[in-house]
Design brief:
Chain lengths: 305, 510
């Protein structure tokens, strides 16, 4: 287990380095530059700015300087946000995204597994059909459609919840629901399929024959095995949640990492974009690692795969 | 943070995230709006966007127009109680032009003697023509007469920063908790990508006249999201909303709507350095094919003001010599034939424009009008920054461009000088235009100066380096509980002149 873990961590670090490198050069290859604004810059002023940010150095030297900074834990000065460093911006944005993503993940998992199991126990009956329809719709409707619809209904129409911003717990309700919906649907489909399959296994039939109550069978004998595919999907799902949170943060004006990332990309803020990519990549790698560890704990065979 | 609004909180959807609150490093219009509440320059805006005395009580200009002497107010105070002195202004102008500040808009004050040399690192800071004969007198020497200086000083580039704080804290002076300002408000909080919050400055020289306690500027970069938040009652003011909603707002909530033409010029620019637009006949043909009024009244329909002059019609004291001419497609076709383009050899051009659904409609209309005279137009769009980067590099044939800003004709006509640099996107060069513009810039008498500018415009536009189209409008939604709001061509609304009506205006949600 320890060797397996070490190998995975080393592999993750190499992946992270590759991501850093690709991001560093890709963002600089995009048309436009960080100092393009509403107003022109005279050549002398642009020269002052380029010098201040070391943009006049050859790219390899800039890359070397950046890597050296990274090793020291410094993501550098933001090219556009002159009053905050990238560390400060990400330090403020990341907690918002983690709360949003974490709550959405828990909601998706609870609602999805709950609904999927509930449906599986009544296969082909009306409530199963209902869950299947809901899950199909949830998967088919992307957050970019669902989120504005939720805003129009609950904020503009009914006035129950805020339409956007970040001034308290109420501001998280709609974003979390909008972000969780497609993932809850995916979890529901997975859980339903898995539970139906496990329900047909001999040990469940035995338990039933012994006269155990239905709820106890599901909780004690079905769910532990049925959760395997759900858990292996959880890693990629968490990554997809992070990607989805970019859209959600835009729609709801939540000051999370995704908003910084999108704004940074639009404004060619080289260091902010690269910094955000690094944090995203680290999160995705970390979550996948975590999911794999959970899998190994649930099923020893996976560590040899 | 409580979710409810503060008793006297004005909540403004400010259109995006400020990239800095350092007045000398700022670049964006949305930063100007916040900084204008936090700081006060020598001159300032009143509620209607007129230029009025600010930190300076009065000023005089020497007969040659080169020396301006400002008398500062005796009661000018920083938010920490320290007096605002002429020395603060000397420090601030030097700081703006110091190359180490890397101020992107330092050139706003190149009119000051020695400013350009200092900013290029060719002269020491002390060379700058700004001096403080005593604590309340500031003397500014210009390199050539510039009668519009009082207007130029309203930008944050002309704002003072507190010498005693900046000298102590360096670049960190700008952070919440450190920043000390001299305007009606001071910085209370800044949550990046969420909001900037300002509170009343008790030491402001006219503090007793300021009625709104707290102003929050939300970083609403998404127009649709901002509109929804306004509809949900979370914002009191939004500066922009989707054009498609205009008819509905006019019908259902006219009391919320404030429409005003903005000092601005949207135009098409031809790349005169390359074929086919090196040929003035081709430029003229494409200009003649356009019907501006159809673009503003039938396509955009947002109240935009069509203009054949390169100077926006709302610039005061300028009467353009360029006539509003109607479209003339037959003449346009004849010109194209003359230039060698006909059905067998049609002219094919690429029109570059800024991405965006509302904007695209206007470009499609332009392409259709050109199609009617046998020109094949391919549209190519890019987002704002990339678009202007391409234009500055001369990487276009014909492109949409815009210029925003000032209440003086020079600000626009300068773009047609061969010395304008890369903002003369089309690389237009006409010695006669250059000579007239340079003569205007040496003339201290405003009437004479404007007469020269008029001639320069007429000469330049005769060969169509650009096709002026229209001035854009600002469409703001302002909740009726906000009082003191005056729509103006500057689109400036200092919070110190606004107040909130106490009664909750019920049933006025649009």
């Amino acid at each position: 287990m320890a060797r397996y873990l070490l190998r995975r961590i080393a592999f993750s670090l190499v992946t992270l380095w590759a991501v850093v490198t690709v991001a560093f050069f890709l963002v600089r290859a995009a048309p436009g530059g960080p100092f393009d604004g509403e107003r022109r810059l005279p050549p002398s002023v642009e020269a002052n700015l380029r010098a201040a940010y070391h943009l006049d150095d050859p790219l390899p030297r800039q890359y070397g300087r950046y890597l050296a900074m990274l090793v020291g834990g410094d993501l550098g000065p933001s090219f556009r946000s002159k009053d905050f460093s990238v560390n400060e911006l990400i330090g403020r944005g990341l907690p918002v995204s983690l709360v949003l993503g974490g709550l959405a993940f828990l909601l998706a998992l609870a609602a999805g597994v709950g609904a999927g199991t509930w449906a599986a126990c009544a296969k082909d009956r009306p409530r199963d059909r209902l869950v299947t329809i809901w899950a199909t719709l949830g998967l088919a409707l992307p957050p970019i459609i669902v989120a504005p619809a939720l805003v129009l209904l609950f904020a503009v129409g009914l006035g129950w919840l805020p339409a956007g911003g970040h001034q308290g717990a109420r501001h998280f309700v709609l974003p979390v629901v909008a972000l969780a919906l497609p993932h809850a649907a995916a979890f529901a489909r997975l859980a339903r399929g898995a539970v139906i399959e496990v329900l047909a296994r001999p040990h469940v039939l035995t338990a039933r024959a012994k006269g155990l109550p239905g709820r106890r069978i599901v909780v004690r004998h079905v769910l532990p095995s049925a959760l395997l595919p759900v858990v292996s999907f959880a890693g990629p799902a968490a990554a997809a949640l992070l990607a989805g949170s970019m859209v959600i943060e835009q729609v709801f004006s939540l000051p999370g990492l995704g908003r910084h990332f999108v704004q940074g990309a639009l404004n060619r803020d080289y260091t902010l974009v690269t910094g955000a990519v690094i944090v995203y990549a680290a999160l995705v790698l970390g979550l996948n690692l975590l999911a794999d560890i959970c899998l190994v704990r649930l099923d020893r065979r996976a560590s040899h795969a | 943070m409580p979710a409810f609004a503060f008793a006297a909180e004005l909540r403004i959807g400010n259109g995006g995230e400020p990239l800095t609150l350092d007045p000398h490093r700022y670049n964006l219009n949305l930063e100007e709006k916040i900084l204008g509440d936090l700081f006060e320059g020598l001159t300032a805006h009143d509620a209607r966007g007129r230029i009025v005395p600010g930190a300076a009580e009065s000023w005089t200009t020497s007969a040659d127009g080169l020396t301006w002497t400002f008398a500062l107010r005796e009661d000018g105070r920083w938010a920490d109680g320290a007096p605002v002195t002429a020395e603060d202004f000397v420090f601030s102008f030097r700081r703006l032009l110091d190359p180490r500040t890397a101020a992107s808009l330092a050139y706003f004050l190149y009119a000051i003697d020695g400013a350009e040399e200092v900013n290029n690192g060719a002269a020491p800071l002390e060379r700058l023509g700004v001096t403080a004969p005593d604590a309340l007198t500031l003397r500014v020497r210009l390199r050539e007469p510039f009668p519009f200086l009082a207007e130029r000083l309203i930008y944050p580039t002309g704002f003072p920063v507190p010498k005693h704080v900046v000298a102590k804290l360096g670049d960190d002076w700008v952070k919440p908790g450190n920043m000390v300002t001299n305007g009606a408000y001071t910085l209370a909080d800044w949550q990046p990508q969420a909001f900037v919050r300002a509170i009343r400055n008790p030491h402001f020289r006219a503090a007793e006249s300021v009625r709104v306690d707290t102003v929050t500027y939300f970083s609403t970069d998404d127009r649709n999201a901002a509109y929804n938040r306004y509809l949900a009652g979370e914002l009191d003011v939004i500066g922009d909303f989707p054009l498609g909603e205009l008819a509905r707002v006019r019908r259902e909530a006219p009391a919320h709507l404030h429409v005003a033409p903005l000092l601005s010029m949207m135009y098409l620019v031809f790349n005169t350095a390359e074929a086919p637009f090196a040929d003035a006949r081709v430029r003229r043909a494409l200009a003649l094919a356009l019907d501006r009024r159809r673009i503003t009244e039938q396509v955009l329909r947002g109240g935009e003001v069509a203009s054949a002059s390169f100077v926006p019609p709302m610039v005061a004291g300028y009467d353009s010599a360029v006539a509003q001419s109607a479209a003339d497609p037959p003449a346009a076709r004849a010109l194209l034939r003359e230039a060698g383009y006909h059905a067998g050899n049609p002219l094919a051009v690429t029109l570059r424009h800024i991405a965006g659904a509302d904007n695209k409609k206007a470009q499609v209309a332009i392409a259709a009008m050109w199609n009617a005279i046998g020109v094949r137009t391919e549209l190519h769009h890019a987002e704002l920054n990339a678009h202007f980067a391409a234009l500055r590099q001369g990487d276009f044939q014909v492109a949409q461009a815009g210029w925003f800003g000032e209440n003086n004709p020079e600000h626009y006509l300068e773009l047609l000088m061969s010395t304008a640099g890369d903002v003369n996107y089309g690389r237009f060069a006409d010695p006669e235009v250059d000579a007239l513009m340079q003569e205007a810039k040496r003339t201290a008498d405003v009437a004479e100066r404007v007469a020269l500018l008029r001639r320069a415009e007429a000469v330049a536009l005769a060969t169509h380096p650009v096709v002026p189209l229209y001035s854009v409008t600002v469409r703001s939604l302002v909740h009726p509980r906000v009082a003191g709001w005056h729509a103006n061509a500057r689109n400036t609304h200092p919070a110190r002149y606004l107040w909130l009506r106490s009664e909750k205006a019920k049933g006025t949600r649009p």
